[in-house]
Structure formats: C-alpha cells, structure tokens
Amino acid sequence: MIYANITGWGKCIPPAKLTNDDLSTVVDTNDEWIKTRTGISERRVSHVSTAELATIAAQQAIDCAGLKGDDIDLVMLATCTPTTLVANTASLVQKNIGATGAAACDMNAACSGFLYALQAATAQIKSGMIKKAVIVGAERMTWHVNWAKRDSAVLFGDGAGAVVLEASEEKSGLLASKTGCDTSNRDILHITNFGTEIDKYEAPLGPSNLLFEGREVFKRAVKGMSEACDDVLNQANLNLDEIDVLIPHQANLRIIQAIQQRLSVSDEKVMVNIQNYGNTSAATIPIALCEAVEQGMIKPNSKIMSAAFGAGLTWAASYIQWGDRITPINKSSVQLSECEKTGLELIAPAVKACNNL
C-alpha cells in the first residue's frame, strides 16, 4: 500500500511584530483585554506578498526533504488571501521554487484550508497519480483587517508553513481525515464587501468589512473540531490516550483549551503558539507543526491529531503518523527580504484609511 509520508517541513515568519501595546494606539483596547479573551500577545505583519511568504516556506520544506523544485509533482496552496486570483497564486509559488511542470492550485477553506489540502494531496499520492507534493498554508490576514473594529483587529496575523509529501511504503503521513462544512449560519464569520456579488462600479469598496460573531464562532468551533476528532479516532481505531501531540488551529486560546478539555488531553501534549502569531488562518497548523518538531514535541513515529475550523463554516480533523526523521536533510538558507519598518509603520496607511471612513 502507498502512503504519503511527510519528509520536509518549513515556515516563514515575517519579522515585523505588532504587540498588544502597539494595537492599543490604534483601537480602544489594551494588553490585558486581548490576552484575557484570546491568549494573543503579539502577531506579525508581512512586508511581502502571500506568494513570497508561501515561496519561502515551500523552499524550506523542499530543502528539508533533500529535494529540488523540479522533483515536485504538485504545488497546493491553502489561502484565503491570495496574491492574485487569476492566475492562481500557487502557480507563482511553483515558478519561484522551480517546480517545472508541476500541477499548481489554490485551495480556500479559510482556516481549515491546510488540512483540506493535506487530504487532497494525500489522496492523489495514495492513488498513484503523483509521487511528491508540497502543501503550503500561507496568509496575509492583516490585509483584510479593518483596524477600526476592535473585536477582529486584535485577532489576526501573517505567516506561512509548508510540508513535503512523498510516496512511501512506510505506514506514515495522513492516515485518517474528516472534513466538512456547517452552512447553517455561515454569515457569522465573513467579509461582506468583497467578491463578485459586489457592484465594484457603484462606490469604492474601502477597508474589508469583516464580520465576526465571537460567541457563536466559539461554540461552533469547539463542537465542530471535537466531533471531527472523534470521527477520525474511530476511523483510525485509536484511543485518545494513544495520541502523542494535539495541534489545533490557533484561533483563540480559550477555544484551544475547550477542545483540550473536551478531548481530555494533557497540557504537555498540546501545541500552542497563538501568543506569538495570532490567528494566521490556513497557516496556523503548518507553522505549529514545524515548531512542534523544532521543540521536540514531535518525535519519530509520533501520533498527531490536528483540527481546524474556519469561515464557511468549514471544519477538519486529521490523524498523522510521523515518520522516522525529525531533522532536515539539508538546512535551508532561503529567507525573506529585509524589512526596515515596524508593524505599526506597515499598517499605518490602512489604519488611516479605516479611521477616515
């Protein structure tokens, strides 16, 4: 039987930080208010495009796997903040990493996008259609933020993470998965003034009008992710105590803690980095996966459970069996271009535009 082993991993974290104290100069908030409600201390603001973030993460993952760009058969980019819609942003990443001839496509399932993409690419490898794929979650969520709205302005950040999948006879990689979508109340998390249903000639669109009903999102996120995890455990014929690491979507610390409690997982098994990056949507899980390896949480043959919930309202859960290797074959030298501005300086034009409405 063919499996899709994870052989490479990489991340791209923009250098410019935006702390809670920084945000208190932009909207009516403070460090205590944000930490108490979200667990976030700071987030990153990108000075480059989603495509460049994705390219760095993808190249790091390819180097980690000891491969070259033209070894890759598929580039799949999970994002809801593409650099371009037409052509798709994955095609630019494919070009940048030298994956000549590889298929390239974007996938938008919001915060669940990386797990959706992981499922899709794994299925292609297991079917024998392809042998090697790079899966990226990359977002510039700060591009969507309306800095005049406190409830959503404090939540989001930018970044990217990626993994390389390779066909293998070793029983590893994504072994069980459940994806779905709860459309009964999809309007509780969406951007109202964006898309082809808007008359773009009637008036300037202005800053994104991001609607976010926090309490309702909280309830549905905990329910959706917990039930998806239960389904995956049943598929894999596993008990919760057999799981070595839980990597949940990093949307809100209280959501993470609620899922942890509902699944009865101990603190040392839960990967949490939301305090450093905020919600980077489709990028949260691959970034957290990379850091779990770096921090020694993921060991050879670790059993990993991951879950996500996003706009749509999409949800997903995955059981991943890690392989034998936890160190890169080649250390990557690729890095972002330098940034000479602070996070506050990067968002200043957007803040001015939001406050002038």
UniProtKB/TrEMBL annotation:
NCBIfam families: fabH (TIGR00747), PRK09352.1 (NF006829)
InterPro entries found in the cross-reference section: ACP_syn_III_C, ACP_syn_III_N, FabH, Thiolase-like
Domain notes: The last Arg residue of the ACP-binding site is essential for the weak association between ACP/AcpP and FabH.
Protein name in the entry: Beta-ketoacyl-[acyl-carrier-protein] synthase III
GO cellular component, one term: cytoplasm
Subcellular localization, as worded in the UniProt entry: Cytoplasm
Reactions catalysed, as given in the entry: malonyl-[ACP] + acetyl-CoA + H(+) = 3-oxobutanoyl-[ACP] + CO2 + CoA
Pathway named in the protein's UniProt entry: Lipid metabolism; fatty acid biosynthesis
Location of the Beta-ketoacyl-[acyl-carrier-protein] synthase III C-terminal domain: 233-322
Domain called Beta-ketoacyl-[acyl-carrier-protein] synthase III N-terminal: residue spans: 106-182
GO molecular function, one term: 3-oxoacyl-[acyl-carrier-protein] synthase activity
Subunit field text: Homodimer.
Organism domain of life: Bacteria
Region (ACP-binding): 250-254
Coiled coil regions, renumbered to chain: none
Residues of the active site: 111, 249, 279
Family from the record: Belongs to the thiolase-like superfamily. FabH family.
One annotated GO biological process: fatty acid biosynthetic process
Role according to the record: Catalyzes the condensation reaction of fatty acid synthesis by the addition to an acyl acceptor of two carbons from malonyl-ACP. Catalyzes the first condensation reaction which initiates fatty acid synthesis and may therefore play a role in governing the total rate of fatty acid production. Possesses both acetoacetyl-ACP synthase and acetyl transacylase activities. Its substrate specificity determines the biosynthesis of branched-chain and/or straight-chain of fatty acids.
Enzyme class: transferase
Annotated source species: Pseudoalteromonas denitrificans DSM 6059
The EC number(s) this enzyme carries: 2.3.1.180
UniProt keyword list: Acyltransferase, Cytoplasm, Fatty acid biosynthesis, Fatty acid metabolism, Lipid biosynthesis, Lipid metabolism, Multifunctional enzyme, Transferase
